Amino acid sequence: MGKNSNRPSRRNFIKYIGAAGAVGLAGCVGEDPGDDGDDDSDGVVIGSNHPLSGDLGGTGTRMDNAVQLAAMIKNEDGGIESMDGAEIDVISGDNQGAQELGGEIADELVDDGADVLTGCFSSPVTNAAARAAESSSVPMVISVSVDDAILQENDLNYVYRPQPPAAQMAIDHADLMPAAVRDAGHDIETAAIYYIDIDFGQSVRDRLQEELPEQDIEVVETVSVDFGETVDTQVTQIQSADPDVVIAISYEAETVELVRAMDNQDYAPPFLTGCSNEALNDRSALESMGDTVEGALATNFALDPTNDRAAEVRERFEEEFDQSFDANVAMTYASTEVIIAAIEEAGSADPDDINDALNDIEVSDHIAAMPPISFDETGENENALAPLFQVQDLEDRVVAPEEFAESEIDL
Amino acid sequence: MDPSTALQYVAFAILLGGIYGLVALGLTMIFGVMDVINFAHGALMVVGMYIVWWGTNELGLSLFLTIPIAVIALFVLGVGIHLSTIAPIIDSSQENQLIVTFGVLLIIVSAIEIVFSADPQRLEFGLGSVQFAGVYLPLGQLYALIIAVLAVIIAWAFLQYTQLGRAIRGTADNRDAAQYVGINVPRIDYLTFGFGAALAGLAGAVIPLFQSIDPHLGDAYLINAFVIVVLGGLGSFPGALIGGMIIGFVHVFGQVFLPGSGYQIAIFLIFILVLLLKPSGLLGGDVHE
């Protein structure tokens, strides 16, 4: 086809591509502010700041539902006892997984009456939201976000994180995984790391590269994946390096792509593991990945399999929302339990009172597979733990440490 | 790097390049004829993806039946979008058209999110791969490459040898002159938009063969498709395929030799170089401003 001679189209085409690139990179595809407007209830309001749309919208929506469910169950049980049965309301904001919306949504939720915040899944978004919470003097309990820097490089007095951060995830993986493999009589000397190339993946990768050599494991290959990519090339790279273990730090879709490419190339490393990998804790994802992931090992925060209440919550969630209950949902629910315990302890909806309670709290009655949750001076959980799972019959089973183990490791 | 590994990378680059070329076809057609920068192209691809996924997984239709269904459905959708949104503003500034197609993108993606959720979806079966001369060829990508090459040949032959194709080319050359010689330009416009959307649908339809899908997957392909359209030459079908191949090679070998997502930097450096050295693209005509 030729060119229309009377329009400066090429220049415009290029100009608009540039504009679109900028818009696309900024992730500005609309906004979904808190849905309830100004709050005038006598209860306590939790502001849930998660990606309800966008690339992370599927998991984000389930996490938001976990917050809703925790509040619902507390209300069904009579509400906040120390506040004469006051009810908990949840207002939700959609951060779309976009960094620039993290703080904006947090501010909107506070304006709409949130007394305490939770969120945000994506680390850069959480970072922005945490700063907004701090400047509003409204406490925020991180639901899921792994980047160490959120709390450890900022002096925040209103932000708390029950889950293990990247450093702890990597330490637990480097500690528990090789020990389990070696205890079962196998050698493990080399590793390849497959990571999603965003803050989350990079921070866990960096820490694993420090921790694995401490356990006499050499990292022989490191490959990255972007959202929406196929990973045939990366699998060939990994195969060429011939590692004893392939460690995947990725979301569900990228883990599924890894497994698909491995299947296509008839490649099966001696061990496949995941560090902070949601797909290996998601039973519907495990089912779709099939036999290739059978026996895979993963460290991640998790539902406590030894706790009957945890099983009840899982069942109720699946019944209520017809969605799968993965590790992110479990951790979000546990974080909301921490918030509710703090409100109960404070006996007040005042953000400063709730913050004071969070500072001193120790929450033993939660559904996560970790010891009682209490926070150090940076807001990190002093007892955070990422237990080791194994995929057995396409279900995630905790195999270490012993106090949370529901099954023996089988290699 | 041993020769067999290098050969494997070359195979992946060709397969990926074919998919990129297919994605760029509809984009280059709509821009070449109508001067409309269709930001909804990625969203139209996503509709094609979900038709194939839903038809196959939920309705139990044959995979190779759902692909033509997606193409036809997207043609109809494209004509509908054109008549309802583009046609009324076809003579206004490109900014207006751009905003409208961006709006269409948001509506389509949001609608898909509402209906199917943002969770990644995948076909319940894998197509597997074949091994040839020590090289693995994933069948999903291989089928996509064959479909891409066939689509280029058919689209090119259609434009060269049919009366409608000649009318489309005439309109692309000069809309005013086309009108003077009796071509029904508004009809050509909606048919072109429909064909472009159908090509987007075809590109989207083959993606579930080898990849998980989600409502935002179109974005991942769209930005590189824009680069390919400029690299191959605006409006050139063979240019789209060649541009796709080049970007496929840069993508794969960039992944091998550059850290992290450095391949994207390489792709955009090529984009800048083309603009500086040959702004008409590899197979584009002369630029008349």
Automatic annotation (TrEMBL), chain A:
Keywords: Signal. Residues 32-42 have a biased composition (Acidic residues). The keyword Signal applies. Residues 44-385 form the Leucine-binding protein domain. InterPro entries: BCAA_transport, Leu-bd, Peripla_BP_I, TAT_signal_bac_arc. The keyword Endoplasmic reticulum does not apply. NCBIfam families: TAT_signal_seq. This is Amino acid/amide ABC transporter substrate-binding protein, HAAT family. The lineage of its organism: Archaea, Methanobacteriati, Methanobacteriota, Stenosarchaea group, Halobacteria.
From TrEMBL, chain B:
CDD domains: TM_PBP1_LivH_like. It holds the Pfam family BPD_transp_2. One of its GO terms (biological process) is amino acid transport. GO terms for molecular function: transmembrane transporter activity. Belongs to the binding-protein-dependent transport system permease family. LivHM subfamily. Its main location: membrane. One of its GO terms (cellular component) is plasma membrane. It comes from Natronorubrum texcoconense. It comes from the Archaea. Keywords: Amino-acid transport, Cell membrane, Membrane, Transmembrane, Transmembrane helix, Transport. The chain crosses the membrane at residues 6-29, 36-55, 61-86, 98-116, 136-159, 190-210, 222-249, 256-277. It is a multi-pass membrane protein. InterPro entries: ABC_transp_permease, BCAA_transport_permease. It is found in: Cell membrane. This is Amino acid/amide ABC transporter membrane protein 1, HAAT family.
